[in-house]
Design a protein that fits this description.
mainly alpha; 68% helix; 10 helices; HD_GYP_dom; HD/PDEase_dom; 0% strand; HDIG_dom
Length: 279
């Protein structure tokens, strides 16, 4: 009897040991599944947090871009108002800057410049005379010829304009600064403020100077009458290769003749000027 009881206890102990082993294996398997699920959960959580961060970053970038664009627009508007203020002192309407911008863009398009750049030039060219805010009325509005000293002061409107527009990160304003500085340079190197010549003059300056001179000639000032279209066109053609870049003048002529075909006679009078085909 004692022997049977001993065998029963051994069997019971063996079964308990097997149960404990199975339980350990079950617990280990359960722990592994739990850990696997936990890792999967943690991975998904990290992915979701990364996506949230990406969305927030994208939203922030969009917000920054939006605010930057708004600030650039405010900056441009402020400079345009200042340019118009300078222009109102010199003309009756203050629309000279707008006409110069439009004609400059049209010339740039005729020269097959990049369309986006042409539109930037349209706005930047309006700032070409912004430096005139620093020129005294006694000089700016003088009805007679300027003295040498007065002309030296007048010439500073180019450098002052560039200084006013300098330091901006806005490409359009940066272009405006280049225009302001260079729109009185001449193809033959006799212009100001730096005496640049030929292609050393930035392209925008070579374009705007033609538009500026033509509109100034055909506009009335306190110190001059308005020239006729014929007179102004004749002057521009005569200054081709001296004051103005030939290619820019040719593009300008093509535009003028589309607007005013009757001015062909003025062009034909300059028979030595090589013809430029236009598509």
């Amino acid at each position: 009897m004692y022997r049977e009881l001993s065998r029963f206890e051994e069997a019971l102990n063996h079964q308990e040991a097997r149960f404990d082993l199975h339980q350990d294996l079950f617990n280990q398997g359960t722990d592994l599944r739990i850990k696997t699920l936990q890792i999967a959960h943690d991975t998904e959580h990290v992915r979701q947090q990364a996506e949230i961060l990406r969305l927030r970053t994208t939203e922030l970038e969009a917000l920054v871009r939006g605010r930057t664009h708004e600030l650039e627009e405010y900056q441009l508007e402020a400079f345009q108002r200042l340019a118009v203020l300078a222009e109102f002192r010199d003309t009756d309407t203050g629309e000279h800057t707008i006409r110069v911008g439009d004609l400059s863009a049209e010339i740039a398009h005729e020269l097959h410049e990049d369309s986006e750049w042409c539109e930037q030039l349209r706005m930047a060219a309006r700032l070409h005379d912004i430096g005139k805010v620093s020129v005294p009325d006694a000089i700016l509005l003088k009805p007679g010829p300027l003295t040498t000293e007065e002309f030296e002061i007048m010439k500073t409107h180019t450098t002052v304009g560039a200084q006013i527009l300098s330091g901006s990160t806005y490409p359009l304003i940066q272009l405006g600064a280049i225009v302001a500085l260079n729109h009185h340079e001449r193809w033959d190197g006799t212009g100001y403020p730096s005496g640049l010549s030929g292609v050393n003059i930035p392209r925008c300056g070579r374009i705007v100077t033609v538009a500026d001179v033509f509109d100034a000639l055909t506009s009335e000032r306190v110190y001059k009458r308005a020239w006729s279209q014929e007179e102004a066109l004749d002057f521009i053609i005569s200054a081709r290769g001296h004051q103005f870049e030939p290619e820019v003048v040719d593009a300008f002529i093509a535009i003028i003749l589309r607007r005013h075909p009757h001015l062909r006679a003025v062009v034909d009078a300059h028979s030595t000027m090589p013809a430029r085909p236009h598509g």
